[in-house]
Design goal:
The protein is of the alpha/beta class and about 140 residues long. It has a single domain, classed as Rossmann fold (3-Layer(aba) Sandwich), CATH 3.40.50.360. It has five helices and six strands, in the order βαβααβαβαββ. Strands 1, 2, 3, 4, 5 and 6 form a six-stranded parallel β-sheet that branches. The protein is globular. The relative contact order is 0.19.
Length: about 140
């Protein structure tokens, strides 16, 4: 069981959003919190594609989230929203999996022009899983 579970929604190997998540995780770890990590890259593509709710990776992911005190959800901005693969994972998690948990949304975008993706895309997604969304962070690349 971890104090905080960090969920990375980037399909990229060399992921900018994952670096931001790693930085936040390290700072929290320095404060004495234990950190667990989940990445969409660790879930078999078949589970995500065919909605395998009961696969060991998916149920293990649910358990990690359910046992955490707080969650951080990270995603790149893709087409002014979160990544499709993050949605595929969230689609197969129990609908109340984040109930009563504070959830920090974190996004990285090509610029800050899609800043509202945090408000209009990621926060509502977290709310459907009953998480209590915190203010959030969007990191944009400098022009
Ligand atoms: C398929 C795709 C769609 C993207 N769409 C947007 C977008 O709509 N707005 C934006 O600001 N950046 C967009 N970007 C840029 C990424 O959000 C940005 O490079 C991000 O930091 C990538 O994070 P990652 O390395 O964690 O995947 C897009 C990138 C890709 C690959």
């Amino acid at each position: 069981m971890h104090d905080i579970v960090i969920i990375s929604g980037s399909p990229s190997v060399d992921s900018r959003s994952q670096k931001v998540l790693g930085y936040i995780g390290d700072r929290l770890n320095e404060k004495g919190l234990s950190i667990g990590h989940i990445s969409v890259r660790d879930i078999p593509g078949e589970d995500l594609m065919f909605g395998n709710f009961n696969s060991p990776e998916v149920t293990g992911t649910s358990e990690k989230i359910r046992n955490a005190k707080g969650i951080i959800v990270g995603s790149p901005v893709y087409k002014a929203a979160y990544s499709g693969v993050l949605k595929s994972l969230f689609d197969i998690l129990p609908q109340d999996i984040m109930k009563d948990k504070p959830v920090l949304p974190v996004m990285s975008g090509g610029s800050i022009s899609h800043l509202l993706a945090l408000e209009y895309a990621l926060k509502p997604l977290i709310s459907t899983l009953k998480g209590t969304t915190l203010k959030g962070v969007l990191s944009g690349q400098p022009d």
